[in-house]
Design the sequence.
């Protein structure tokens, strides 16, 4: 007999982080672990409700990878008086933050296996903050499966 699929959804508020890439896996798992434990097989969809930060999955061990990613993003998307951006309503980091957010994205889909996020050993969820004066960030986590 087939098991009916189930759903769960929760909005998580991440505290403000300074500009850069930050490992947030443990905070997200802590917030959803009660619901997550009820799924044997499924998908977790994470959606960041902001346009000047992003989510990605990458190295979870060496913080140099997060620092190097921030260095790369700042070189590829310049800011300041010599940058060509028209949109600067909230400061010189405004448009670069939107571009970086579009480059990395605002959503992730992660498999669920036996009540846990099924990521590789060295994978972690990053919040990439692209503003100099960040605020808290909301992530909607939707779980679906059996």
Sequence:
């Amino acid at each position: 007999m087939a098991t009916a699929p189930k759903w769960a959804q929760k909005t998580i508020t991440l505290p403000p982080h300074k500009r850069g890439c930050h490992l947030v896996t443990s905070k997200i798992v802590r917030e959803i672990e009660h619901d997550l434990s009820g799924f044997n097989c499924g998908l977790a969809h994470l959606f960041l409700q902001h346009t000047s930060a992003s989510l990605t999955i990458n190295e979870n061990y060496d913080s140099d990878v997060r620092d190097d990613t921030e260095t790369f993003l700042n070189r590829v998307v310049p800011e300041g008086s010599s940058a060509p951006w028209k949109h600067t309503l909230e400061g010189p980091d405004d448009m670069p933050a939107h571009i970086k957010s579009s480059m990395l994205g605002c959503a992730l889909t992660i498999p669920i296996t036996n009540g846990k996020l099924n990521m590789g050993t060295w994978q972690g969820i990053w919040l990439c903050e692209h503003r100099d004066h960040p605020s808290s960030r909301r992530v909607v986590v939707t779980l679906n499966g059996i």
Remarks:
- The first helix runs from residue 25 to 36.
- Residues 9 and 142 are 4 Å apart (CA to CA).
